[in-house]
Structures are given as structure tokens and as C-alpha cells.
Amino acid sequence: MRMTDVFGRTLRRAPAGHDPSTSYAVRAALVRFIDDRLLFLPLGLRVANNITEALLQGNETVNHVDGPGDFPIEAWRRLLDDEIQSYRQLPLCLFSRRLERFSDHPRGLASPEWVRGLKWHYAASTEASLSELCERWLQQNEKRLDSLGLPLQRLEWGERSCGWAYLCDFGPDTLLACSSCSYMASHATAHFKRSEFVPEDLQSLEMISTPDADTIESLAALLDVPATKTLKAVFLRSDDGTVVLALIRGDLEISIEKLEDVIGRRGLVPASRAEIEGIGAVPGYASPIGLHVRERPETEGVLVVADLSIEHGFNFASGANKPGFHFSGVNYPRDFEVTTTADIAMPKAGDPCPKCAAPLESRAGIRIGGWEAFGDAFHFSDEGGNLNQGWLGAGTLYLEPILAALIDVYHRDGVATWPGRLAPYDVYLVDLRSPRETNDALEGLQAKGLSVLLDDRDVSPGVKFTDADLIGCLLRITVSKRSLERGGVELVCRAGQTEAIYSITTVAAEAATLKDKFM
Ligand SMILES: [Zn+2]
């Protein structure tokens, strides 16, 4: 390929407003953002394809399937329901390489609104069998990502999801990591060890007048108690219209992600005043006391999910569902019912690690892939001919975030040092006004099967060398009057940091040897 034919130009200066990896990718003509849409240019597409190839190397033979980019999990369920008749077909792996979640406004290569993914769907007959497949998938891909030189941390995303993050300052994902053990989780879903509490005698339930105390702060101030002695009721509505009462100790906040995991519904937003009143609660003075609470998630009544913290304390102050009134001496389970208790609290830096109790620390990272499991995913006939519920798991590698992380590993100050197999071309061939000899060298390199980017532009040597550094091919070969006087062409190998003169007839063989060595 000739530089004069390559679409997309390199830039001298990094564009403003991008993270360092995205800035490099724009400078090196790998990608462009046009109207906030991410577009891969030819050089970037070659790198992306090299990454994909490396990630698929040694992959077990799987069934390739493909569909529209927005093929949702429900569609997979229907497909599996239709196609899987018997337990004999399980476990099953389906692979697709496709646009996974298209974002109109990616904030950069590392942004979580990734657009290209490699995705494996696994169908299994039991949760245990799916867990084994998950662990195998994680280990296989850890090996592949490790072979690209990417240092990774495993982390929990949610109840049934996990994955990896590449830790770096500009990473868009906030993570909580244990300062002592290997525990790490996404900020919103991290667990933390609950504090011990001192038992107290249970007070009797008493309705008290609390005018203008419709927030935890005002209630705690009025009663002169810490927020830990109050209960907070938060009302949310899911995308299917279900109103949820989330109950938590007054000093803590609700994690929407955890709550969505618990109730199995997405798109939670604050409920309206009318919706809160519609279930019989009074905004600002609400609690489950006196409400018709669902016994189980599928029964009638108000869906109440309480954080574990309601069990970690006594004699709370809590809303009376009457304007201007609260109850004091509220104790669970004596005074009210809930549909379920779970960890739905938003963790924060400094909270104790759930495994070893050392403080959790806030870290920034890039999520580069992970695994999600779905129960009750499809139906199949078991050995006895009975209809059983199957499990579906999906493992995804996110291409753009992986590229962002790899750029952070292999790029510094305008100089890229891609490993041979990721670089856009094997050789960057610089022609400094010696076209005939350059052409001879080019033919020799191509005959050895090397991919060559020939810089044949009518620009200064400085510009060519700057671009050679920026694009970062493993080998740089320069053909100039001076090199020819010294007996041939100059060969620079970035990985080996070697530099030597070779004759035009021998340079191709040497280049091929170096490529094999540093693949
Ligand atoms: Zn720990």
C-alpha cells in the first residue's frame, strides 16, 4: 500500500477533548469521530482486524450465527426455544461477530457504549453446567488477552455477570478494588461487609408528629438521632410500569443496578407523586407500614425490596404514610413486611471489602469484556421427556475498549510500538528520493509475504519519520542516497531496538526473520 493512496491523514497535534488513547487513534488516522459517530479508517481497520484475529486464534470450533445488530436477548430465547428440542443438543455454543450495541454518541474508544463485539452465546441445561462454561470462557480469553500484552483485572459486575477491566487513569468505568485482596467490582454493584451492631431492647411502635420533616436530614435533626436510626423509602418505576418501594437505612443510598438485578427488571426511574400515592404511600412520609406488601415477587400488592441494613439496627424512625407523621420504635420484622431483602446499597470508597474487610479503594478502568448469565432462558426436553428450563450465558469481548487499552500499553508520546501481529503493516518503507532502489526493496519484501506501507509522499524526511513512529509498524526500512552509499538500506526493528544496513537483496530475508521473531 502506498501512503499516497491511503485514505485518512495523520495529524500533527492531538485533537482536544479526547482521552489519550482516542487522541492517538485520531492522530494516527486509525479512527475519526464525525458528528459524534465513530468511524474506522483503513489503518485502524487493519489494527482492529489484527486484534480480532488474535482474539479468535485457537478458538474452539463453534457455530457461527449472525443477525441484526440489535438482536436482543429475548430474540435469542425465542431462537433457542425453537431450535433446541432435546437435552442431547446441550451444551451448545453460538458465536457471532457483529455490531452489538450501537451508540450514536461514543465518548471515545474506551467508552462503555462500545459498538463492535465478539460474542459467544452458551446454552446449557443447568446453572452448574453454565457456570463451568463461563469459567472456561473466562480462562480461555484471559489467555488470549494476556498474549496481547494486556494486563487485566477480573471483576464482578452484578449478581450473574463478571468480566475484566484494564486499569488506567482515563478509564470511564469507576471500580471499587480491595486494598488487600483481589476483590474488585464495578462501583455500583460492589458488595461490602456490613457493620456489626449492638443489640437493643425493642421499643414499642409509636406514631409521632414530625411536621416539615420530609427528608432523612430534617427527620434526623428533628428527632436528634443519627441517620443510621432512620429508614429511607425510595420509590422507583421499572420500564414495565411496576412501582418498587426500595427501603434502606437512612445513612445509605440505593444502587439502581443492584436493585434492577434483584427484581429482574430494567430501566428504573423515580416514580411520580401520583404513582407513589397510587400504591397508598405518602411521599416524604412513606414506609411499608400499613401497605399491602407482596408476599412474593409474583403475587399481588406493593413490591418492597429492603436492603440488608434494615436488619442491622433497631428502633428506627420511619414514615407513617400520613402527612406530617412518622413512627418511632420501628423494628423489622415485627412491624412491617417486605417482599424480599437483598444487598441493594450503593457502596463507596472506604467501605470494608466483603471478603477480607480491608477498605475498598476507588479505581478507574476500561471494561473490555465479560460474561452475563440468564436463567429461564429457553425450554428443552430432558431425558425423561419432561420440559425443562435451560440456561443461557453470553460472553462478549468489546473491540473498541480493547483497542483503547492496547493503545495505552503500546503508545507513548507519538511513538507506537505495536507487537508485530497487531501493527497495521509489517514494514514501513521510507523512500527518500531513491524510487528505483525502493521499488526493488518493495518487491523483495512482498515476495517474502510481508505487508508493506510505502511512504512515497513528496514530503520532508522528518514528516515521514514522524509518521513512521506514529503508525508504529514493527520494521522501518529507509532507502536514501546515504544508506545506498553505506551499502544498501537501513532497517530499524522497534521491538529489538536494532538498526543496521542491509543490501537490497538481503533485507527482505532479514525482515522476514525479525517478523517471525517478534510476532
Ligand atoms: Zn479484600
Assign the structural class, choosing from mainly alpha, mainly beta, alpha/beta, alpha+beta, or little secondary structure. Answer: alpha+beta
Number of discrete helical segments: 12
Q: What composes the largest sheet?
A: 9 strands, mixed
Rounded to an integer in angstroms, the radius of gyration calculated over CA atoms is 30 Å
The N- to C-terminal Cα distance equals 21 Å
| Multimerization state | single chain
- The helix content is 10-25%
Bound molecules: zinc ion
Structure summary, number of beta strands: 26
> What fraction of residues sit in β-strands?
25-35%
Mean pLDDT: 91
Shape: elongated
| Unreliable stretches | none
General description of the model:
With 519 residues, the chain is an alpha+beta fold. It contains 12 helices and 26 strands. A hairpin with a 2-residue loop joins strand 6 and strand 7. The longest helix has 21 residues, at 127-147. Bound molecules: zinc ion. Zinc ion is lined by residues 178, 180-181, 183, 353, 355-356, 358. Zinc ion binds next to loops.
